Amino acid sequence: MSFQDEQLAKEKVFRDPIHGQIIVDNQILLDLINTPEFQRLRRIKQLGTSSLTFHGAEHSRFGHCLGVYEITRRMCNRFQRNYPTRQPGDGLWDDRERPVALCAALLHDLGHGPYSHTFEHIFHTDHEAITREIITNSSTNVNRILSRVSPTFPEEVASVIDHTYHNPQVVQMISSQVDADRMDYLQRDSYYTGTNYGKFDLDRVLLMMRPIKSGIAFDISGMHAVEDYIISRLQMYLQIYFHPVSRSMEVILDHLLKRAKYIYQHPSEFEPEFTPYMLMPFFNNRFTLDDYLALDDGVLTTYFNHWTHSRDEILNDLARRFLNRRPLKSALYDEKSKPLLPKLRKLIQTAGFNSDYYTAVNDSFKLPYDTYNPQNSNPQNSNPQTQIELIQPNGNLIELSQVSTLVASVSGKEAGDQRFFFPKEMLNEHQDIEIFEPIYEEFQSYIQNNHIINPKEHK
Predict the structure, then answer these.
(1) Distance between CA 135 and CA 144 in Å, rounded?
(2) Residue-wise pLDDT tens digits, 215-231
(3) How does DSSP classify residue 304?
């Protein structure tokens, strides 16, 4: 049975605060949405710890995946209406690609775990690899549904997600510098965080898209809409994704899981209290796909609640700091002040905090726009950037930063900062334990205007 044979007699509509209506008109897509693997995404926050900074950011990866599907559906509709292929190899849109594009868009984030990026760092998982496994593993509901299209269809969908699919148009719909994924999460995250940074003219950007042999380009008359998108993305990273409080809570979460793993792996040092059965496969570095799919944000939060009663003071305290939103403080540092960090860690250790668990450095940088340079390409980069190309009136292509002074001004320049995280108690003026007072005073002498300084140079 083909994809087209499973068209619904009456389309299904999901109401959405970003796109208004998300339309599903095919039984394959509806069945994929109703699988346990996809429904699990309702229980995983899109922005992880950012909801502890922006209280409205409780939205899930489920809604985001539906949004990416909807944008991709609109792309397919426009391409089929305005740029349908007339002969093989003409670089126009072949609507036979629609099924793989829509399924890849819908399923692209299927492998994300709870508090995704922090979880990946601690347990060395890879959400893209797990997404691929969910799609291609014959034991999953997702695979069985995709296999109704054809025996090779699951592999085709997976190849879009790992950027090896033969048609670059389909790959760039889902993964490029202007793709359905980014266009949805910028607007969605902006809405739910109560900010305006991520808003841009989505309709105009989609209107200006054109299929070409090498992928997707934009009519040059839409340059300013693309500029607006790029600046919106830069602002979202600087103001939302790189927010110091969100990063602080990520540090606490990272150290909390690291401490729990250490306690589990050193039973002779710690009196056993309870066994975290659902995390044991990850502590043992031997987990199955079923183990992974059993986890969501709620499972981890349940364990965090347990750990607030732990006899281990560090695990107990970190769990309480995370659940009760008691972030670490941070200060900016640069290459000049970086040599001061060991001294600050030593002061924190002397004040009674284990510096392995109560300090951290966190670097967050992002390229607003990355012009592709073959000479500078990294052979180890599995996800190279595709440059944004504009179609001129004569049909020739020109790279965006060549004609946009605004984009040229931010191209290839990293934006972000480096921060040193430490307990907020180190900045308190009055401490209960007077013996530590000189330590706090000395530590505070290194902090000025949220920057780490050398006090000897600022007298």
Answers:
(1) 9
(2) 999 999 999 999 999 99
(3) H
In 3-state terms, what secondary structure has residue 58? coil
Joined tokens for residue 302: 């349940």
Two tokens, residue 450: 């949220």
For the chain, the helix, strand and coil percentages under 3-state DSSP, each to the nearest 5: 55, 15, 35
Distance between CA atoms of 99 and 371, rounded to whole angstroms? 31
> Phi and psi at residue 84, in whole multiples of 5°?
-70, 145
Token pair, residue 65, equals: 């995946």
What residues have CB less than 8 Å from 432, skipping those under 6 apart?
none
Q: At 395, list the tokens.
A: 């049909």
- State the amino acid at position 337 in one-letter form: S
d(CA 9, CA 295): 36
The DSSP annotation for 350-374 comes to HTT--HHHH-EEEEEEE-SB----G
User: Which residues have CB under 8 Å from 433's CB, separation 6+?
Assistant: none
pLDDT on residue 433 = 61
With vertex at residue 312, the alpha carbon angle to CA 311 and CA 315, rounded to the nearest 5 degrees, is: 120
Query: What pTM was computed for the model?
Result: 0.93
Write the CB contacts of 35 (distance below 8 Å, at least 6 apart in sequence).
Answer: 140, 141, 142, 145
What is the Cα–Cα distance from 42 to 160, expressed in whole angstroms?
23
Question: Which residue in the block uniquely carries the two structure tokens 């946009």?
Answer: 404
Tell me what percent of the residues of the chain surpass a pLDDT of 90. Answer: 82
DSSP state of 54: S
Handedness of CA 401, 404, 405, 411 (dihedral sign): negative
Closest CA to 44 of 127, 138, 122: 127
Instruction: Give the Cα separation of 93 and 112 in Å (integer).
Output: 31
Query: Phi/psi class of residue 133: alpha, beta or left (left: φ > 0; alpha: ψ in -120 to 50)?
Result: alpha
Tokens 């008691």 belong to 326
Length of the chain: 459
What six digits make up the tokens of 73? Answer: 């559906």
